[in-house]
Specification:
19% strand; 4-stranded parallel beta sheet; alpha/beta; 12 helices; disordered N terminus; 6-stranded mixed beta sheet; 458 residues
């Protein structure tokens, strides 16, 4: 009997130790497979991690296949999954403006967060749309937002980004509108334009702004990271804010407009539409430049090595091997564009290839002024692109992935230009994912299509 008790005691002890060991995998390992658990936001990072980590990690693409990236917001379950992972890899806050909220909520976790844009100088969004600079001067303000507000006080904040304010001051007009939403903006914007031409009333941080026929000149405190102003609303209603600059240019870790309880206040309509996906005035599409893609790989290698120190040498060696492939890709593009008749890309969608075009000395023209998927080009810009195609003799109009190419179709019908997909590699379809596409295979296909459209000669 005594021996039986000893045996039972030993079995319980072994079982308990087995349970403990099962719950205490080495740091940086998934409890399911023993591999590093990595979540990435876009397809380029997903593919880079697959190439670098190989069988050392289970990598998940956060963005569902076939979903347009600029309109994506993570679900609560997505955020839970991120918190449970070992490494979270994203493009940068200019591409994923929601990411700072996720990071704030995971501060106590051992989650390794990788900003792949680290060390890359981002270009202003408008730098890639200079073909349309003349048409952008129609309004003295860059942004208009319609808010349905209740009587009370609110806070509008301006934050330094990368250590400085986008501008040391900004003009703003706040008007009460009889109509709400887009209609409110349309019916009152001419009044705002007249006010922007007049004298200003200076306001310093902490002072109160009220809806009135007043052009406020907001002066920021350079000694502080945030300059906040109070907005006083006397009665419930629709209020339209017109600002000299896009508010997200002054967003760092928090939303720019809040009530006194700290709740974010979102516009019910805004111009330009989809402003919160305008990347804070910076172009985030760094992965389309194969040279910057190599820097992204460096950042990923650093993050994986931090999350899984045991395999650091493997990640570094694998990363260097993959960078050689990216260097070869860069060389193919550089050599090809030396032999093309044309140097201007005619693009019927939102042009994400700004860094790519700059790298290889190419020009471009697109009827869109930004990247928001719900933005619409003006007839004037479409007509300008049609004229450029007819005058230049170019035979191809390119369109973007995962978005209805209706504008490219109109241009194709008017000019006879052939429609070709120029893939921005933000995301891929289920079919593409199943077929085993990679970042490099998509970019090589882009190269062949650019040869067609730009008149490549052997």
């Amino acid at each position: 009997m005594k021996n039986l008790k000893v045996l039972i005691s030993m079995l319980v002890t072994v079982s308990f130790l087995a349970f403990i060991s099962g719950c205490s995998l080495p740091a940086g390992k998934s409890s399911d497979t023993g591999k590093l658990k990595v979540i990435t936001t876009l397809f380029p990072q997903y593919d880079f991690v697959r190439e670098i980590a190989k069988d050392k990690a289970d990598v998940t693409l956060l963005l569902p296949p076939g979903v347009e990236s600029h309109s994506y917001e993570p679900s609560p379950q997505n955020i839970v999954n991120i918190k449970k992972s070992n490494a979270f890899i994203y493009t940068g806050e200019n591409m994923e403006p929601w990411v700072h909220k996720v990071i704030e909520s995971t501060k106590d976790n051992k989650l390794v967060v990788v900003d792949t844009s680290k060390g890359i100088e981002l270009l202003d969004e408008e730098k890639h749309h200079e073909e349309h600079e003349e048409g952008e001067g129609e309004h003295p303000f860059e942004w208009a937002g319609a808010f349905n507000l209740k009587a009370g006080q609110y806070k509008w904040s301006f934050a330094k980004v990368d250590g400085k304010y986008a501008d040391p001051e900004m003009k703003m007009v706040i008007l009460n509108a009889a109509k709400s939403g887009k209609e409110g903006i349309e019916t009152i914007h001419e009044r705002a334009e007249e006010l922007f031409k007049g004298a200003t009333t200076a306001k310093k941080p902490g002072e109160i702004l009220v809806p009135a026929d007043t052009l406020y000149q907001l002066e920021f405190d350079s000694s502080k990271d945030i300059s906040a102003f109070s907005i006083k609303i006397e009665k419930d209603g629709s209020y339209i804010f017109f600002t000299q600059h896009v508010p997200s240019e002054f967003e760092d870790k928090e939303h720019f407009f809040k009530d006194l309880e700290g709740k974010d206040i979102e516009p019910e309509a805004q111009k330009p539409e989809g402003e919160h996906h305008y990347h804070g005035g910076k172009d985030p599409h760094i992965w389309l430049d194969p040279v910057y893609a190599q820097k992204m790989v460096d950042n990923i290698v650093e993050g994986l090595s931090k999350a899984d120190t045991k395999n650091e040498s493997f990640y570094k060696e694998s990363g260097e091997s993959y960078k050689k492939k990216l260097q070869e890709l860069d060389g193919k593009f550089a050599e090809a564009f030396k032999k093309t008749k044309y140097k201007k890309i005619m693009y019927g969608g939102h042009f994400a290839f700004g860094y790519f075009a700059k790298r290889y000395g190419l020009e471009h023209i697109s009827p869109y002024s930004g990247f928001a998927p719900d933005a619409e080009p003006t007839p004037q810009r479409i007509a300008e692109l049609i004229k450029n195609i007819k005058d230049s003799g170019v035979k191809v109009i390119y369109y973007e992935e995962l978005v209805n190419p209706k504008v490219a179709k109109v241009i194709s019908d008017q000019t006879g230009a052939k429609m070709l997909l120029l893939h921005g590699v933000h995301n891929v379809t289920n079919e593409e994912l199943s077929s085993g596409v990679t970042y490099i295979s998509i970019m090589e296909e882009n190269l062949e299509k650019l040869k067609q459209g730009l008149g490549y000669n052997e």
